[in-house]
Amino acid sequence: MADYDPTITLGPASFWTQADALLRKNLAFQKRNMGANIRLICFPLFFCILFVLVDNLTNVADNGKAKRCGSENATMGQASSCPIPNPPEWPALLQIPAPNYRAVRTDSLTSSDLPNESCRRTGDCPAITLFTGNNQSLAEILTRTMFSTSSDIDSSNDLGSLATNVLGTETNPEGNNYIEPAFASDLPIYNVQRQCTPNSTVYIAINQSSMVMGKEVTCVQGLYLWRKSSSEVNDELYKGYQKGNSQEKINEFVSAYDFLNSDGNNFNVSIWYNSTYRKPLADDGSMSLLRIPRAVNLASNAYLQFLLGAGTKMLLEFVKEMPMPETKPVNTSISSLAGPLFFTWVILHLFPVVLNLLVYEKQQTLRIMMKMHGLGDGPYWMISYAYFLIISLIYMLCFVIFGSVIGLKFFTLNDYSIQFVFYFLYLNLQISLAFLVAGMFSDVKTATVTGYVLLFASGLLGAFLFQSFLENDSFPSKFKKP
């Protein structure tokens, strides 16, 4: 037994000695909680296997259905990916207002040549087009030849006879011309004439893509009304807009023409059209097409007849879409659709774990006892941070390995070096946030509940709120990547 020497004094333990002691304590604690650590590591494996099983079940269900283009059992999503080498031809139509929305004389529209509002009750309001220009006589000659005086539709010669008539529809346009909505709806096709005759309704058959579609063609009177200037035209068009009058009544015009300085040697025209039919169809920014070509053709064809005689016509026989190649069907992978939200939750799962351990030491006064035994703040924070970082890195490494082995595209389609940098930075931020939040709690149960609430809330807000903001073109560009 060594003799006691009172002249020898023991100083505080060095930084690395304290760090080594705390590291051994943490390792011993993890050894006693081996089951909890295994469950933590297997948590991402459970979700990866779950996604693979769901994807396989979805693929089996899809493979049980016919996927060939042209099959009667093909779904709408499968049919939309089929090639269309020869798109169908459709008659060029005008956008005609619905009978109850056509322009009539009201308190805001007081022009005497507008029809009385009573025509809406009988459904025979005319489709009105306004026109103006420097030369009124020329403008009136041109507008008189725009609409035919009699219907010469031949039901046996579909597109040929339809092109010589001015046809229109009140259906809303779509984003392409592969199918004309007017022929797919129950609403009639309008044949715009200067004066409708009794029994002017005819039925036609359109043969497109081995399908025969029968449609009713109903006569509607078309009126061209002269206005002295373009400002008068603008004023009436605006007052016909629902928000342009105090009564909030809709008085819609077909279109309007300003023939400007047109004469026998010069043709110059401006055309007004209703752009409210142009609406977004999807999140990708695609918009519905407007039925403007027929309105342009009416003006140019009328001027050509004015120059060369009534026998000269420049017909717009049809409109058609561009050919479409075969495209890949919409991705129905559950891991690609719902995966990002669940992957976010898997990564955030470490936050309540770290927060729980930090608050546990505070609740059990372990931090105070270690400080009473000489443990300084520096070794404590360094070892605690490094300890949680190592656990987080092992957790994420297992997550990436599991996901890559079973073939989740979330991992295999992205470069692993970029993933490492992203996960490493994120894990450091997550641990730092846990250290900050831990100072607000002294009870483990309260901290655990709060941690999981933040976990689910942040994932849901990111997927359903912030993502839509960042992908929206109206979101300030300074918050986006250049």
Question: What would you note in describing this structure?
Answer:
By secondary structure, this protein is of the alpha/beta class. It has helices at 15-32, 34-63, 76-79, 119-122, 136-144, 158-162, 181-184, 230-240, 293-308, 334-337, 339-348, 350-363, 366-372, 377-405, 409-412, 416-438, 444-471; strands spanning 94-95, 127-132, 167-169, 189-193, 202-208, 211-226, 255-258, 270-272. A hairpin with a 2-residue loop joins strand 5 (202-208) and strand 6 (211-226). It is elongated and about 110 Å long.
Share of residues in helices: 40-55%
Instruction: Give the oligomer, counting copies of the same chain as homo and different chains as hetero.
Output: single chain
> Low-confidence runs (pLDDT<50, min 5 residues)?
72-77
The average pLDDT is: 79
The SS-based structural class is alpha/beta
